[in-house]
Amino acid sequence: MDQVYNDFLQLMLNARHDDKQSDYFTIGDLKEFKNRGLNNSEVKENAVTFFVAGYDTTANTLAFACYCLATNHDVQDKCLEEIDNIFHGERPQFEDLSKLEYLDRFFNEVLRLYASAVRIQRGGKQGITVKGVYIPKDVDISVPLYALHRNPTYWPDPEKFDPDRFTEENKAKRPDYAFIPFGVGPRICIGMRLAVMEVKMALVFLLQNFSFSPCSKTEIPIELETGGLIRAKNGIPLKINNREKP
């Protein structure tokens, strides 16, 4: 495991110096990195947190994404068309993910309905009054994401799956904090960018090779169970078909 940790640490350090000729860091670089407040052990521990904490949540989100594709064939067709037009059957590269505008809207709509966290929690550093209600210092405040993301004030017909909620025009019609699947502010999920990249890369690969449709055991609507995370109570059985590459 130490080799894995050190490889990840090496990548992080290299990324900070990608404008230099050398691909590897020097002793001076390492001293600079340590002076920023994290030692090697702390970086290793955070790297492990990225993968351990992100494994179940990412897999869960990907499963819900496949369910949404299977139960919304018009949306699936648009995702397929965009992916085929951009990649032409070739292996996706990270820098190309930003070109997938419709897939991004699709992914955000999946997160709106099936954000992994049921709620996020914050502790106030000072007392504050919100709409006439005083909240004392150090009182924990819980934000129910499931309810927020289905609030009809911000999301008309909230149970309908509609990626076009996330066009620039529609996003401008609602408050920024109406959609916070990874939290917000200084305590936003540290693994957000990694999770988004993982799911999008997986979706591109899957849709290049397969299409999804409901089967006799697919629940529509799906029954959810909520604990620490939102999950499908009875799993997500789907029919998966091979597709011909363009």
Automatic annotation (TrEMBL):
<comment type="function">
    <text>Cytochromes P450 are a group of heme-thiolate monooxygenases. They oxidize a variety of structurally unrelated compounds, including steroids, fatty acids, and xenobiotics.</text>
</comment>
<dbReference type="InterPro" id="IPR001128">
    <property type="entry name" value="Cyt_P450"/>
</dbReference>
<keyword id="KW-0560">Oxidoreductase</keyword>
<dbReference type="InterPro" id="IPR002401">
    <property type="entry name" value="Cyt_P450_E_grp-I"/>
</dbReference>
<dbReference type="GO" id="GO:0020037">
    <property type="term" value="F:heme binding"/>
</dbReference>
<keyword id="KW-0349">Heme</keyword>
<feature type="binding site" description="axial binding residue">
    <location>
        <position position="189"/>
    </location>
    <ligand>
        <name>heme</name>
    </ligand>
</feature>
<dbReference type="GO" id="GO:0016712">
    <property type="term" value="F:oxidoreductase activity, acting on paired donors, with incorporation or reduction of molecular oxygen, reduced flavin or flavoprotein as one donor, and incorporation of one atom of oxygen"/>
</dbReference>
<keyword id="KW-0503">Monooxygenase</keyword>
<comment type="similarity">
    <text>Belongs to the cytochrome P450 family.</text>
</comment>
<dbReference type="InterPro" id="IPR036396">
    <property type="entry name" value="Cyt_P450_sf"/>
</dbReference>
<dbReference type="InterPro" id="IPR017972">
    <property type="entry name" value="Cyt_P450_CS"/>
</dbReference>
<protein>
    <submittedName>
        <fullName>CYP3A</fullName>
        <ecNumber>1.14.14.1</ecNumber>
    </submittedName>
</protein>
<dbReference type="InterPro" id="IPR050705">
    <property type="entry name" value="Cytochrome_P450_3A"/>
</dbReference>
<keyword id="KW-0408">Iron</keyword>
<keyword id="KW-0479">Metal-binding</keyword>
<dbReference type="GO" id="GO:0008395">
    <property type="term" value="F:steroid hydroxylase activity"/>
</dbReference>
<dbReference type="GO" id="GO:0005506">
    <property type="term" value="F:iron ion binding"/>
</dbReference>
<dbReference type="Pfam" id="PF00067">
    <property type="entry name" value="p450"/>
</dbReference>
